Amino acid sequence: MERTFIMIKPDGVQRHLVGEIVHRFEVKGFTLVGLKMMKVSRELAEKHYDVHKGKPFFSGLIDFITSAPVIAMVWEGENVVTAARKIIGATDPISADPGSIRGDFGVSIGRNLIHGSDAIETAEREIALWFKDYEQVGWEPVRHSWLYE
Ligand code: DAT
Ligand code: MG
């Protein structure tokens, strides 16, 4: 089953949106298989955002991600990578559709609340970067046959 890496950024934690955000993935039909709260090191933040190294917003982004605790998660389900990006919404909350997390709760690109892997290969890389195997707990939700034909 497909998995994706989701992180509630420091602003989501500080604004007490953790429950609201987790709820959206749960009610959609995805399964939580890993979750931890952590203060992110600069080393981990820089590895995670490696593709953005050299861009003008990079150092501000690393400062932000390391400024306060985050919630790191792994979610599972069919097509979860693509679906999670839709639940999250466009990168700039002003362009994000209402109904998405960024569209409902954000107003600025540098405080857009949440990260989600952008492709299956990225998800694999990010999950391996943030989670040990034993921190991911596969389980069989009883609602499965009511979600999938
Ligand atoms: P996403 O998080 O939607 O995958 P991204 O990978 O392009 O977006 O960028 C990573 C994060 O960097 C993004 O969530 C917020 C920040 N960011 C991107 N573009 C930015 C910009 N022009 N100014 C400030 N922050 C930016
Ligand atoms: Mg991205």
In short:
The protein is α+β, with helices and mostly antiparallel strands.
Keywords:
149 residues, alpha+beta, 4-stranded antiparallel β-sheet, 8 helices, 40% helix, binds 2'-deoxyadenosine-5'-diphosphate, binds magnesium ion
Topology:
Blueprint (H helix, E strand, L loop, with lengths): L2 E6 L1 H5 L3 H11 L2 E8 L3 H7 L9 H8 L4 E7 L3 H9 L12 H5 L8 E3 L3 H11 L13 H4 L2
Antiparallel strand pairs: 1-3, 1-4, 2-3
The chain binds 2'-deoxyadenosine-5'-diphosphate and magnesium ion (MG).
Structural overview:
By secondary structure, the protein is of the alpha+beta class. Helix content is 40%, strand content 16%. The chain contains 8 helices and 4 strands. A 4-stranded antiparallel β-sheet has the order 2-3-1-4. The chain is globular and about 45 Å long. Bound molecules: 2'-deoxyadenosine-5'-diphosphate and magnesium ion (MG). Residues 52, 57, 61, 91, 109-110, 112, 115, 118 line the site of 2'-deoxyadenosine-5'-diphosphate.
State the helical fraction: 40-55%
Strand order of the largest sheet: 2-3-1-4
- Largest sheet, described in full? 4 strands, antiparallel
Structural class: alpha+beta
Distinct compounds present? 2'-deoxyadenosine-5'-diphosphate, magnesium ion
Distance from N terminus to C terminus (CA atoms, Å) equals 15 Å
- Low-pLDDT stretches: none
Mind telling me the C-alpha Rg? 15 Å
